[in-house]
Amino acid sequence: MPRLHAVTDERVARLPDLADRARALAAGGGEQIALHARGRSLSGLAHHALAVCLAAHPPASLFVNDRLDVALAVGARGVHLGARSLTPADARRLNPGWWIGVSVHDAHEAQAARAAGADYLVIGPVFATATHPDRAPLGLARFAEIARSGLPAIAIGGVTPADARELRAAGAYGVAAIRALWDADDPADAARATLAAWSG
Hints:
Elements: E1 4-7, H1 10-13, H2 18-29, E2 33-37, H3 44-55, E3 61-65, H4 68-74, E4 78-81, H5 88-94, E5 99-104, H6 107-115, E6 120-123, H7 139-147, E7 153-155, H8 164-169, E8 174-177, H9 179-182, H10 187-195
Parallel strand pairs: 1-2, 1-8, 2-3, 3-4, 4-5, 5-6, 6-7, 7-8
Helix pairs in contact: 2-10, 3-4
């Protein structure tokens, strides 16, 4: 499974140079990056268009957040489920080949996601983030506790390339980010810098 997850939001989905930035991230991350089509307020048509755009940049993998109909339509490699999504078991019935991830915020949720059949966890927010300003950051110690669930743990929330090594030391299989990747002056360099924590 990819170690780096570049997650979109509604703002990123509407960037005029989205395709160029996706191409650069794919060049920098190669097979170790997943491009996530995410946008909670996007229409189904807009979400599909976003996924099609991201799917056009191999060897990066396409993951789709929440919209399993879109994931099926575009042949996504993986899906990510939120609190209001179907269960991992339901998702696996739709496509047994998907990587299926679940967002969690504490050790209880992590164990429940594992029992429900998730393949990986997205744990956060680890640090303060503008995406969820009302949610207190977990910090490294709590992240490390949750990451001991036995599933690959992806850290999210205020993560930058400079944080990758300490997150790996805390038990992260990989990291996910929005701004640190999509808004980087050089997205390819940002991807390479983040993945460097796992290259040694």
